[in-house]
Design a protein that fits this description.
β1 and β2 form a beta hairpin. The chain has helices spanning 3-26, 35-61, 64-80, 82-86, 97-130, 137-158, 164-190, 211-234, 242-261, 268-288, 294-318, 326-351, 357-371, 379-403, 462-468, 514-523, 526-529, 541-552, 577-586, 605-615, 643-646, 649-652; strands spanning 407-413, 416-425, 428-435, 438-444, 486-490, 506-511, 533-538, 557-562, 587-596, 618-624, 634-640. The longest helix has 34 residues, at 97-130. The strands form two sheets. The protein has a seven-stranded mixed β-sheet with strand order 7-6-5-8-9-11-10, sandwiched between helices. The chain is built from 22 helices and eleven strands. It has 680 residues and is α/β, with parallel strands linked by helices. α3 (64-80) runs antiparallel to α5, α3 packs antiparallel against α7 (164-190) and α11 (294-318) packs parallel to α13.
Length: 680
Amino acid sequence: MLLFPVVVFLSAALLFLVQPMLARMLLPYFGGGAQVWAACLLFFQTLLLAGYAYAHLLTRFCAIRQQVLLHAFLLLLALGALPWLLQPEFATASTSPLVGILGVLALTIALPYFVLSATGPLLQYWFAAKFPLRSAYRLYALSNLGSFAGLLLYPFGLEPYLVLAEQRGYWALGFSLFVLGLWLLLWQLVANKGASPLIKVPVEALTVQGQPWLRWLGLSAAGVVLLLSVTQQLTQNVPPVPFLWIVPLALYLLSFTLVFNRDSWYQRSIWLYLFAISLVMALVLYYLGRQFDLFSQLLLYLVLLFSGCMLCHGELARSKPRHGALTAFYLVLALGGVLAGVLVNLVAPLLFTTYWEFPLVLLAILWLVALSNWRQQPLWQNALATIGGVLFIGCFILAELALGQHDVAKSRNFYGSLTVRDVSIAGEWQRQLIDGTTSHGAQYLTDERAQTPLSYYRPGTGVALAIAHFLPADPTRTPQQLQSRRLGLVGLGAGALAAYGRAGDQLHFYEINPAVIAAAQQHFSYVADSAAEVQIHLGDARLVLAEQLIAQGGNAFDVLVLDAFSSDAIPIHLLTAEAMQLYWQHLLPDGVLAVHISNNYLDLSSVLRNHATALGLTALFIPTAADQHNPAATEWVLLSRNARFLAQPEIMQAVRPWPRPLKPELQWTDQHSNLFQVLK
């Protein structure tokens, strides 16, 4: 009896512990963006569906002894697949990041995850066969509690203290213990140890006829779409670190645990009322989220998520079937999760140019819960849901029309949502490139001022000073010898930095998002009109630079600019100690590394100061205040050992004291980084 809850809890904990661990591992290979987590969830939801389908078919068509023997054999195969998880490097040859992520996960974790996902429903079925008078749904609630524990263990117990290789090793050890425990339980079942004989529970055939099955599918899919949408909104402006994945997923699972453990936890009217109030804040956050600090956004988004999940999962709990349809019920729920993953990862980017799935799923939940049982509900409740939904749609349409009237172009892909928009600032029209919610460059629309860089790259900013006033450490090199400068620029944006290129210069841009390249070439003229020779390299800058180092050696850059934002988030893998070492293999010994650190939520100054100390460099902080033509203040850090360059009056006059005291313990590496240490 004791082995049932122990194995169920351990399997669920391992199932959800591995998700953030592998997503964190894959971030540097696929650009470090928020969509990596969504792609991983699509894979895990698909494997969950496969595991539930296997459990359903096994329990319907096989005798209990055959079920036990077959599952024991699969456990052995999964144990033999663990070495793939422990390998230090992973090949990512696919040109599609989504296909690449799914391929790596299939190779490393597919079989162990498949076995874990099937174990929960199988153990609940065997428990019902062993103890027919007891409720197997308590084991379901316990599995959700184990999932919750596994998720929380990662950010608070593993990630802060263990490097990624050690994390994978401990997970493999935990999986081995799970296999041993389940083998022991299976042996007891086959040997019929215990007082009660096994009674095969009739398993009903899966059918989609009738409302309950379709409603289960819709509620399950809506909950997962809401989870993915909220997570995406949260990680638009800060790096997509595991904590910001785990908190929403943990609340999602907590709602499952509560409603399936005790019916009284779900009071439809209360949660519907809270969700309706949250809809107002949802629209405000969707359009004006950057006006809120990080903790306010986190609180408001999570209240919205939890109330929506309580509605979806509470309705599922109210309509749960008899024991004979247990595995079919879980199969439909898993199918809803896969459907949601496909909608967010594949369908939404094709249909929408922005993240419209977020407001649309809110409306879907409101009507799915409030109106699906309209015959049994009071008239006022149906009227309130209908009127609220219509008002929500009206506000959404008005906001889109008001904000989009000057949009020139929009696009969306794996790396995010882009908008090219014309705006009037201080009486002059500018064209902006907006990634998510953040401007990534602007250009005057008049021909006479079109080559004057704006925004974070305007004259007088740290990057402008680094490029315009670069001097080699060797004073014998004359200005004439500097007519051919080599500049590396990580992040293209609107291409504003190309305006600083002179005849004879070579500019190498590194850009991971093909949509950004298309926007810079089609809607801005910085690159086309630059006097320099401009080359654009498509791909993650760190991976491309590493490949170039192997193929051709260092690039011998005079200046290397690091400005790789996704919305307002900086991919962490571009700011680690290993990344800094790579940059200096491509820079001349007297070169300059210019790093853009403007951010509403993060203070990256200590990260760079500590990197500078480790590499024997001088780091200078150069902020530039906002003005009437450039409403965004900007902050740059210049790192160099070139005393001649750093001592120039133009540089020293722009230097300011560091904004915050140094944190010497703040060291970011590929294996370990801590977002909380850099929160403002």
